[in-house]
Design brief:
213 residues; alpha+beta; six-stranded antiparallel beta sheet; disordered C terminus
């Protein structure tokens, strides 16, 4: 019996390893394709491969980097997608990809993962792109628009009804992604936005430390 169980265990383990080796490649390829599609959906048109030129920026007091994916056209920077996160969502970590034009204006966003409440915080996927009141962040620039919840002092963006914590987390990630993009431009010799973020100081803003991959 012991011998039989041992053989079964070895065979099962071998089969699992074999299946994993077969599926690992396609899964990784699908994830790469999904990420490229997310980059395309939030940035201006580009003709380079942003993934091959990804650049890392790590917030102070943290170890997980934000990823900057530069969008180039004919060799010129036209914007970037920045994949960032916050651990301050109502349900924990939220990961979002934001798109920016060269001047820092928001060109789009995609919520990549979250554990927010369905019907409340989960609305962020659409709420902050709706052209209703002051909800939308699309087309706005953190240097001229205070990317904080309107109910907080100095804020300019209408938060999700009954989901203020999620709204704050969403905008915190946006501000940090913008800072990451500005750090990328400085590191690569592109001109940066001349003024600081509007409303900076209303709540703690993360400064940057940068590192290339």
């Amino acid at each position: 019996m012991v011998l039989s169980l041992g053989i079964i265990t070895i065979v099962a383990s071998s089969l699992l390893a074999w299946v994993n080796s077969l599926t690992a490649g396609p899964i990784e390829e699908a994830q790469q394709k999904e990420e490229i599609e997310a980059i395309k959906s939030v940035t201006p048109p580009f003709d380079n491969n942003p993934k091959s030129q990804e650049w890392k920026w790590t917030p102070d007091n943290d170890t997980i980097p934000f990823m900057v994916y530069p969008a180039m056209e004919n060799g010129n920077l036209v914007g970037a997608a920045v994949k960032g996160y916050t651990k301050n969502g109502f349900g924990g970590e939220i990961r979002i990809m934001y798109g920016f034009s060269t001047d820092g204006s928001v060109t789009g966003y995609q919520v990549l993962s979250h554990a927010e409440t369905p019907g409340l915080g989960a609305k962020m996927q659409e709420w902050f792109r709706m052209d209703i009141g002051n909800r939308s962040v699309i087309g706005k620039n953190p240097t001229t628009t205070s990317m904080y919840v309107a109910k907080d002092a100095g804020g300019a963006i209408d938060g999700i009804t009954a989901a203020t914590i999620t709204s704050r987390a969403f905008l915190e990630t946006l501000r940090n992604c913008f800072t990451a993009f500005e750090a990328y431009k400085t590191d690569h010799g592109f001109s940066t936005t001349p003024s600081c973020m509007a409303g900076e100081g209303t709540t703690g803003a993360t400064t940057h430390t940068s590192s290339k991959e």
